[in-house]
Amino acid sequence: MHDQLVIEFKRELQKIAHANSCGIEQAFIQWYLDTYFEKEARKQVTDGKHDGGIDAIARYRKKYFVIQSEFSHDIFRKKSRVSPLSLKKISQFDQLPGIFRDQKHFPKWLTSVESSLRSKYEEVADAIRSNPNSVIWEFITLHDRSPAGAARLENLDSDNFYYFRDNLRLFELSLLAATPPSAPLELTFSEHFIVDDRKKTIRSYVLQANLKDLVDYLDEDPYFRLLAQNVRSKIPKSDINDNIRATFVKKPDEFWYSHNGITIICDQANIRGNTIVLKRPSVINGAQTLHSLQGVAQRDPHATVLVRVMEIYSGEGNPEIVRFINDIIFRTNQQNKMNKYNLRANDKIQVKLAKDFVKHKVFYERRIGEWDLNKRVLKNDGYEQLKVPQMAQYLVSCRPDLGGVVVAKKSKEALFSEPIYDKLFNVSFDEAFLKYCLMRYCQLIFKQFRGRKNKGKRFLLSTVFSIIWTSLARSSNLKRWMQLNSAIVGGFRERDDAGLSTDIRDVYRECMDMFRGAQTKDPDFELRSFINDKKWNDLLIKKIVPHVSKNIQRHMSQMFP
């Protein structure tokens, strides 16, 4: 077991416990509900003295999830063996579906339950009698698997027991912004073969699978959880999309011969007859195909596609396995033209930035198309969009040693190549967020510029921003300002500030004065050429910063006294 992942998991549970004024045992239940289910799911923690052996109930996608938990401190103790789940706990929970189905014994059992929970339990009982498949019984625990207990199950499905490795895997996925996880995927196939890699302990399945199964699955996966670990999001309308749909609808028997295939990784795969069931599947190559076919009405059950499944389990946070998965994602998506910044989507630094920006109502778009998928909802919730390439440009504008403003205006691809990428994003969130706030504020002020004198102002935006940051960076208070800015939701832009806006205008005017001075010597000299010249940019910083830095620092100190 890898200590770092366990330590982070414990910290997360302690944070939830503190926020909800509860013990870590109940925090584990709350964490599971928040991580496994979408925000719109109706979730209720029922854990208590007279809970009837049920710790939580969730209503999600027309189904009830009845959950029992059993916490264990074993995984948080050094060199401690994780004990198996007790047979008694398994047996008690296994009896509940039968009690809920029994109209004679259920009312009597209900009298032993806390009165505030009875109506909810009656709701579940009505649902299970009407349609047994509408109620899912889950057991979540930090204990180890109990083979003997699983063998004795009469009413429950052993696949719905989530042990400590499963929950560590769920936590790991949450760190990669890949939660809630996708539901199990069942594929029908006509031909298949299996390849075992004993060295890497990975089993691969190569299938001639029914494409309709994948398209049907998307109907119940509106948030595309199946594609959460794919570096591609929805690809804009293109001829390729149209051709994929046309082949599926008009010539389904030719799809097998026309498509390169779909690659899926999963935690566990089980073959039952001519079907394969994948636990926590994630498509890492083939996203464009699935997006293209979503919602297609005519679905021929005979259309097949090459599917390669890799059963890779990294539930203990093995960094080698995580790195291996990321390498597979990177390589399989390089085969088709794709921007390098999309290939960096699942890098830890990008995932962490995305999580931190959420606190400030900023949607950090790691993969192209993510914003458009939920644009209306995000805007209604008050989010604003920040694309990864934009962030890279903001960062490099403040780094003359990496090329500064001139590089920021060139190819975005270069910013995501080695060695510049690692140097560029090797910053704390506090620093990245302050730079973001400063650039957004500069953009706001620039929009207010009017008149012919300000023609071409957009060319100077990055340069002015760079000068403002360089002035702040000369102060010993910079770190404190960064921390105080991050402590405010939305950053300093939420404050009414006249001083900094004046500084931005002053810097802009000084830049324009230097340009006009250069233009007097060469009437054909253009502002675009002026800004795209590294020598002029370096000179602007050298000449202007000494004039303005004291005022800029003073105004920042007034904002953050």
Label this structure with key terms.
25 helices, Trna Endonuclease, Chain: A, domain 1, 561 residues, alpha/beta
Unreliable sequence segments: none
Please tell me what the overall shape is: globular
> How many angstroms separate the termini?
46 Å
Number of domains: 3
Count of runs of 4 or more consecutive helical residues? 25
- Compute the gyration radius: what is it? 28 Å
- Percent helix, as a range, is 40-55%
> How confident overall, as mean pLDDT?
84
Main β-sheet, spatial strand arrangement: 9-10-6-7-12-8-11
User: How many β-strand runs?
Assistant: 14
What is the strand content?
A: 5-15%
What class, by secondary structure content?
Answer: alpha/beta
What kind of sheet is the major sheet?
7 strands, mixed
Write up this protein.
- There is one protein chain.
- The chain has 561 residues and is α/β, with parallel strands linked by helices.
- It has three domains: 3-175, Trna Endonuclease, Chain: A, domain 1, CATH 3.40.1350; 185-338, no CATH class; 348-559, no CATH class.
- It has helices at 3-20, 24-36, 87-101, 105-110, 118-130, 147-151, 164-175, 211-219, 239-250, 255-258, 287-293, 319-334, 340-343, 348-358, 370-373, 375-380, 388-397, 404-408, 420-424, 429-446, 461-473, 478-486, 499-521, 527-531, 534-559; strands spanning 42-45, 56-60, 63-70, 135-141, 161-162, 185-197, 202-210, 262-266, 268-272, 275-279, 282-285, 304-311, 362-365, 384-387.
- The strands form three sheets. A seven-stranded mixed beta sheet has the order 9-10-6-7-12-8-11, sandwiched between helices. The chain has a five-stranded mixed beta sheet with strand order 1-2-3-4-5. A two-stranded parallel ribbon has the order 13-14.
- It is globular and about 95 Å long.
- The two termini are 46 Å apart.
